[in-house]
Amino acid sequence: MALRLIPLLALLLVAGLAPLVLPAFHVTLLNYIGLYSLVALGLVLLTGIGGMTSFGQAAFVGIGAYASAVLTTQYGLSPWLGLLAGLAITLVVATSLGLLTLRLAGHYLPIGTLAWGLALFYLFGNLPGLGGFGGLQNLPNIELLGWQISGSADFAVLIGLLLAASLWLLDNLLHSRQGRAIRTLKESAGMAEAMGIDTARSRLQVFIIAALLAALSGWLYAHLQRVVNPTPFSVVMGIEYLFMIVLGGVASLWGALLGAALLTLIKQVLQDVLPQLFGHADNVEMIFFGVLVILVLQYARGGLLPVLRSVLPASRPRTLALDDAPALPRRSMPAAGKPLMVAQGLLKQFGGLVANKNMGLSVNAAEVTALIGPNGAGKSTLFNLLSGVLTPNAGQITFNGQRIEGLSPRAIAHLGVSRTFQHVRLLGEMSVLENVALGAHARGKAGLLRSMLHLERKEEAALLAEATRQIQRVGLGEYLHTPAGSLPLGQQRIVEIARALCSDPLLLLLDEPAAGLRHGEKQALAQLLEQLRGEGLGVLLVEHDMEFVMGLADHIVVMEFGQPLASGTPLQIQQNPAVLAAYLGGVE
Ligand SMILES: Nc1ncnc2c1ncn2[C@@H]1O[C@H](COP(=O)(O)OP(=O)(O)OP(=O)(O)O)[C@@H](O)[C@H]1O
Question: Rounded to two decimals, what is the model's pTM?
Answer without folding.
Answer: 0.90
